[in-house]
Amino acid sequence: ECAELLKKFDNYLILIHRNADGDTVGSAAALCSALRRTGKTAFVRPSADVSEKLLPYIQPCFAPADYAPAYVIAVDIAAPGLLPEGFEGEVQLCIDHHPSNSGYAKNTLLNAGRAACGEIVLELIKALRGSVTKHEATLLYLALSTDTGCFKFSSTKASTHITAAKLMEAGAHVEELNTLLFDTKSRSRF
Question: According to the model, what pLDDT value does residue 92 have?
Answer without folding.
Answer: 98
